[in-house]
């Protein structure tokens, strides 16, 4: 349990600039949206943009027009927090699956899961993606361990 706490503490330290709701994280390819932009969004999107736009526009409209949040809070609540949560859970479940397959028991399993999750969530590639505004790609990246686990389980 201590190892999991240390991982969460480390992740908190690495991503602590994201926790202030008054500062925006918009940079690079991640735009800053004003309320006027959000009001112009359509709920139904056009076919070339179906891979990301429905979630992007729906969460922006929901946050701004239903909960009356500023973009600084919307991007953290609907994009960056889910990215971190999915990354941690996805890596945890994948590593837990590997532990079962390799029959690792005891303290070694907690260390294995803790270090693996920490490396996955705080490596330089994912920090570069999220910091550069490629949050859609970062969301996809966060699902990779879960997808690999599912593929392994299906073809077992």
Structure explained in plain terms:
The protein has 7 helices and no strands. The chain has 156 residues and is an all-alpha fold.
List the topology elements.
Elements: H1 2-14, H2 35-39, H3 53-66, H4 71-102, H5 107-122, H6 124-131, H7 135-154
Highlighted features:
69% helix, mainly alpha, 7 helices, globular, 156 residues
- Biggest beta sheet attributes: none
Order of helices and strands: HHHHHHH
Total of DSSP H or I helical runs spanning 4+ residues: 7
What is the overall silhouette?
globular
Specify Rg, calculated over alpha carbons: 18 Å
**Structure summary, number of beta strands:** 0
Structural class: mainly alpha
Given as residue ranges, the uncertain stretches (5+ residues, pLDDT < 50) are none
Distance between the termini: 30 Å
Indicate the mean pLDDT: 86
Helix content: 55-70%
Strand residue percentage: under 5%
Summarize the structure.
With 156 residues, this protein is mainly α. The chain is 69% helix and 0% strand. Helix 3 crosses helix 4 (71-102) and helix 4 (71-102) packs antiparallel against helix 5.
């Amino acid at each position: 349990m201590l190892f999991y706490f240390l991982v969460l503490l480390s992740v908190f330290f690495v991503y602590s600039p994201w926790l202030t709701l008054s500062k925006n994280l918009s940079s690079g390819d991640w735009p800053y949206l004003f309320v006027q932009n959000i009001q112009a969004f359509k709920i139904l999107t056009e076919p070339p943009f179906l891979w990301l736009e429905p979630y992007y526009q729906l969460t922006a409209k929901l946050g701004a027009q239903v909960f009356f949040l500023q973009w600084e809070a919307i991007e953290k609540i609907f994009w960056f927090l889910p990215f971190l949560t999915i990354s941690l859970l996805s890596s945890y479940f994948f590593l837990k699956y590997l532990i079962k397959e390799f029959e690792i028991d005891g303290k070694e399993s907690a260390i294995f899961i803790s270090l693996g999750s920490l490396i996955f969530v705080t490596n330089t590639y994912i920090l570069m993606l999220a910091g550069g505004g490629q949050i859609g790609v970062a969301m996809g990246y966060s699902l990779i361990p879960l997808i690999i686990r599912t593929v392994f389980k299906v073809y077992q």
